[in-house]
Design goal:
This protein is α+β, with helices and mostly antiparallel strands. It has one domain. Helix content is 30%, strand content 33%. The chain contains 2 helices and 5 strands. It has a 5-stranded antiparallel β-sheet with strand order 2-3-1-4-5, covered by helices on one side. Helix 1 crosses helix 2. The longest helix has 15 residues. It is globular and about 35 Å long.
């Protein structure tokens, strides 16, 4: 899953909090072109199993996010589905 945030600093903070709480590795990445809406954007890439916890982690740590996407492969292409 990709959690789109507004800055590299917010992405790094969310990454560290998510790893500490859910125990899965997380990565700060540039937001994929298919879900980027203008300008430079950063995302936290995290296992889909952390979906239920990520909103609470974000709120508890004062980190806002723009949107959450799940990545799927359909007919050999990456497709992103907004879930929040």
């Amino acid at each position: 899953m990709y959690i789109v945030v507004g800055s590299a600093t917010a992405a790094e903070r969310l990454k560290r909090a998510a790893e500490r709480i859910v125990g899965f590795p997380a990565y700060v990445v540039h937001t994929p072109a298919g879900i980027r809406h203008g300008g430079c954007s950063y995302s936290v890439r995290l296992d889909d199993r952390a979906l239920n916890e990520i909103k609470k982690i974000s709120a508890d740590n004062g980190i806002s996010f723009k949107k959450i996407y799940i990545e799927k492969t359909e007919k050999g292409e990456r497709v992103y589905h907004a879930i929040s």
